[in-house]
Design brief:
single chain; mainly beta; globular
């Protein structure tokens, strides 16, 4: 898989050859800075709704969309620490 793409209508993944596009999320927030976990089992990304930015994770198949942070501060550009 190539890195997830970012756009204003949701997150998607696509195979490196350009095929197999899969929509992971479908909402009106601006999602960006995707980062695969070292195991490849989760994707972390930031989601900005126009007022606040928080960090979420999701499985590459689109299931398990979990909010990781919920603070009144701007949180962006997630990364995975060493394991």
């Amino acid at each position: 898989m190539s890195p997830p793409t970012m756009n204003t209508t949701g997150r998607s993944t696509q195979k490196a050859n350009g095929g197999g596009r899969r929509q992971l999320t479908d909402n009106s927030t601006f999602e960006r800075f995707p980062s695969y976990s070292p195991s490849g089992k989760r994707i972390a990304f930031s989601s900005w709704d126009g007022h606040d930015s928080d960090i979420y994770t999701i499985k590459p198949d689109g299931s398990g969309n979990d909010q990781v942070t919920k603070n009144p501060v701007y949180e962006d550009n997630p990364y995975w620490g060493s394991q």
